[in-house]
């Protein structure tokens, strides 16, 4: 059982910040479980919090409308306040309308599944998925799925844009290998980063799931900062070396076109 250290919350800045991080971790855990909901016990396991802390924070979040509780099954869901806040945030951050034609075009022209992912801290979050015409598909990635930097093609292309010092800091302690396997060791990530920097696009040669390949290219925001990535996924036979330059070129073209569209579209 963990230590219920957030009894200090509110007494000093550190405790208050810790409580905030814990509450946000619970919101994220519930959000990732939607629409099936999440039990309090599962929420405690997902976040590493004690059951008493979890229950207290869940009730507090529900009181503010950020979570909703269904007493018939005991599960927790995202609340109405998040919907209202999200609809307002969408006016600033939602690029779905602009990105969707680019994602659709990639899927139609290549036959592979195409995606848009967003950079969120040290993670990527999938926002859009468009199916291609090829009947064999990879289902590693879908809307709402998160990967850390250095994992999956979108995560790799963002990792490649870190300078060497920041990349070393991120990889210190070999943080990816334990969960994602030795193919995501610090040395292997650095090797793939070097290849990505040389090509301009990332290649995931079945590193997450054997036989499921992917490629990704970065999209920049108005200020020129990396913010999103376009990617393609499919079965290994569709990503042979002879075809990779063609797919990479199409990804880079659409990523550049979307970057330009973002820069020239008036702010809402």
UniProtKB/TrEMBL annotation:
It holds the Pfam family HTH_IclR. It comes from Cnuibacter physcomitrellae. Keywords: DNA-binding, Transcription, Transcription regulation. PANTHER family: HELIX-TURN-HELIX TRANSCRIPTIONAL REGULATOR, ICLR FAMILY, HTH-TYPE TRANSCRIPTIONAL REPRESSOR ALLR. This is IclR family transcriptional regulator. GO terms for molecular function: DNA binding; DNA-binding transcription factor activity. SUPFAM superfamilies: GAF domain-like, Winged helix' DNA-binding domain. GO terms for biological process: negative regulation of DNA-templated transcription.
